[in-house]
Write a structure and sequence with these properties.
four-stranded antiparallel beta sheet; Aminopeptidase; 463 residues; homodimer
Chain lengths: 463, 463
Amino acid sequence: MEQVVSYIDTNKERYLNELTELLAIPSVSSRKEHQGDMQQCAQWIADHMERIGMHSVKIFPTEGHPVVYSEWLEAPGMPTVLVYGHYDVQSEEPVNLWTSPPYQATVRGENLYARGSTDDKGQAFIHFKAVEALLKTNGSLPVNLKIIIEGEEEVGSEHLDSFLEEHKDLLQADLVLISDTSMFEKDVPSICYGLRGIAYMEIELSGPNRDLHSGSFGGSVHNPIQALAEIIASLHDDNGRVTIPGFYDDVRSLTKAERAAYKKLPFTDKKYAGGLGVKVLYGEKGFTTLERLWARPTLECNGIWGGYTGEGAKTVLPAKAFAKISMRLVPDQRSAKTAKLFEKHIKKIVPKTVTVNVRTLHGGEPAITPIDSPGVEAAVSALEKGFGKKPLYQREGGSIPIVVQFKKILGIDTVLLGFGLPDENAHAPDEFLDLNNFYGGIRTSAHFFNELPKFWRGKSKRR
Amino acid sequence: MEQVVSYIDTNKERYLNELTELLAIPSVSSRKEHQGDMQQCAQWIADHMERIGMHSVKIFPTEGHPVVYSEWLEAPGMPTVLVYGHYDVQSEEPVNLWTSPPYQATVRGENLYARGSTDDKGQAFIHFKAVEALLKTNGSLPVNLKIIIEGEEEVGSEHLDSFLEEHKDLLQADLVLISDTSMFEKDVPSICYGLRGIAYMEIELSGPNRDLHSGSFGGSVHNPIQALAEIIASLHDDNGRVTIPGFYDDVRSLTKAERAAYKKLPFTDKKYAGGLGVKVLYGEKGFTTLERLWARPTLECNGIWGGYTGEGAKTVLPAKAFAKISMRLVPDQRSAKTAKLFEKHIKKIVPKTVTVNVRTLHGGEPAITPIDSPGVEAAVSALEKGFGKKPLYQREGGSIPIVVQFKKILGIDTVLLGFGLPDENAHAPDEFLDLNNFYGGIRTSAHFFNELPKFWRGKSKRR
């Protein structure tokens, strides 16, 4: 691996120039006028795959933007890694807030500024360069590899599901590797091994059969806004715990190792609260903030509305009130089951003065790749070699739909090897990528492919 | 009075034809294209005042639509009545839902259908015809009389306040008489002697300094929607009572006579609930529904909003949540004091996890003209003579801003002698006036002017 790392060091400048070329293509997936740029970007990546030595390079058309596929499968008996990334970017608007032109990558200090630098062209490119270094140095890879780079991540990966369904066999692998997230903070390389799932609900509460005058009728009927407030208020107890019966039944307990690992992260409640502008944090008693965010299920109101919401005063006692409420799920909760528990509970507690309609808007399962699994162990070892310091473990409180889909459709767990930073302005003006993370990322990626077989204990699932 | 009533009977047809003429003018105050109709309508009323024998007829321009004034002040030592009404109407739209053309008054059954028939041209016209009958029969009125008919009631009486302020002396009187409301139901003549006041508030609850991703941050901070729901839920106790300390301190207790009077009204909870489409009514324990509506203060959420309120799902943990909350007040509560109690309480109970901003949007005082006051006693006697049955007492749960303004600016109590019915489609297609109430109203109005001096015990306030 010394030679591989030396190859990476020697080619730093060229790598940066190539990335600059990729970042110059305004591949904004949401805008029709960039249709041609999307095609051009997919072609650029396909050409690049050929150049670094990948095989069977193909541009798969979809009903939306194309997916670029390539593979290298000449390591018999070794595990197969499926690298996922996306070449589409968010719109550059508002352009006037950019310090340098969004599609003209510019180095300032240790950062490379451009739309797509961290989300996700730069991070996907990290793996291309690691593969190049391995293939050019050794003539082979230590693992089997498949790479798919899609063009619709920023518009909801609308056609990825059907692409995965149609190409189940082609895409079969032992592990998905994605670099499209952030490390915990600068100089704190970390490995994200879990995501929360979601059950997203809507409540419609109906009172009187029409909007009433709150003067003429106030005092005679249960105001649906009040009734809704009473229901929402009752969904947490004084300890910040969700009161829905059975809600916590399937929650996997945190291990001692996990709780110890989170404590090592550079995190204080005070600094976190300060960053959010709140005096006091809130949540389930008996857990630290990071534990609550990552490993405990929660219930949040995402929206509420009813009655008059414009300027000034209108004396209405509304016929209806609505709320959107989502529950974040952790292993081993299941979205459909949780949605049912929610609906059953709401229907049980709703007072006779109103009627309720509960709808499930969408659901997604939680995901976890245990910290003692080969993929995570290889990633930890690779990060230590790539960045020169032991990485820390983290989870993420949100859901990443593609991770859920890889598990659901292909049955494969994902390792999230994020080389971004939390403050890199993804989706905003002056998006950047920390160049230390760019080069450290390339070294880490190369080490990951090299380390994985050592930790691999199972049989390769690839047919 | 026999001759007066006989005059009314003899002239029934002409009265109806004259009202039909008044209703033919499309005096829609909210529409610029009806500016000319507004002027024409004011002129019609002024001409009519001259014709029935009123003096000093004048059309007062305002910054909006004009006010028509007239007086008859030749009853020295007798009380002075100020009759208020309005000649403007709501728009006739949607026209296609009218059975007969909105400005072509049409008799069907016992009803007269036209825009403005009950709200308020028809009801104001009732007093014109009573005055005519008295003056033509007796050559004089039993009381002093001032009549103002404004043209902006349907657009919030925007310039009435300044009109009252500017003409305080001209408008001085002992009692305001308004017919712009409904009797309790058909064949149940009733006298409305009280209105509730209002204190209308807005709460802005702030949590984190920006909208957060509910996955990445859910479980760490107090969601402002949840916190708002908890606050709103806490504002009523299990007995439906408002929990704000001091809220009930100034509430005047219902007298035995009032409670007994309300029990005489043809009202059942079952029928009322059925009409509103609710299975179970809600409100403060220890009071009947009518008592709660009319004589007890209440707190209602008029609006609530926060987070995502569009179609589908968005995983936001919002920075802010808002509610509009109004309190209906009864004698002797005061709007400003109640608003202060509310603000103080909210600031006391708001958790440290969020911050709150409380604003007063508007306020109005409750009004009551006691049932043993001369004005109400005269109205009761007049209704009995006019309709041939003892009227019942009622209050109204809403506020009528002009009643509050007459009290505030001129210091005069109002008697609300409603000749409408609750189902007459005011503001809607097929508005109508019950003709029994039209003629009964004219008789009642004449009797009222005749009865008032008998019950008058005080000195006339008129200078």
